[in-house]
Amino acid sequence: MALSKLDNLYRQVILDHSSHPHHHGTLGKSDLTVEMNNPTCGDVIHLELEVKDGIIENIAFDGSGCSISTASASMMTDVVLGKPVSEIEDLTLLFSDLVQGKDVPEAEHLGEAEVLAGVAKFPARIKCATLAWKALSKAVNDNEYVGESGNIQKHDEE
């Protein structure tokens, strides 16, 4: 089956983000660190954020995962960098609705992550696409120090 030109473009954007992820690596100093995994396929993400005055000033991710998981994390970092923490939950829910195939009129707020709407056709890949977004949501919403279990750790300010 031949892909339409638009499908081909979307596929290329995903492959580019997967092969050359943006904001990949670690930060020298971070305010929030989260590690999460997708046990169904083995994707793992380590997410670090630097937040100042309620704004995400820097973000980086590392880990291992499939192309959808890596591309989604890369796109997510582009979307949220410079955004207020107060907008994160809305963006996360918007993305979740998008990859579940729901009508999302505000999808343009997701930047290139909008191309992941096609994941809805592959339900087994939804968890891959949402892993980074769930980690981000946990980082900005969870006030507990878990540390040892690897779920979330908030660093004390120096």
TrEMBL record:
Pfam families: NifU_N. GO terms for biological process: iron-sulfur cluster assembly. Residues 10-92 form the NIF system FeS cluster assembly NifU N-terminal domain. GO terms for molecular function: iron ion binding; iron-sulfur cluster binding. CDD domains: IscU_like. Belongs to the NifU family. NCBIfam families: SUF_scaf_2. This is NifU family SUF system FeS assembly protein. It comes from Enterococcus asini ATCC 700915.
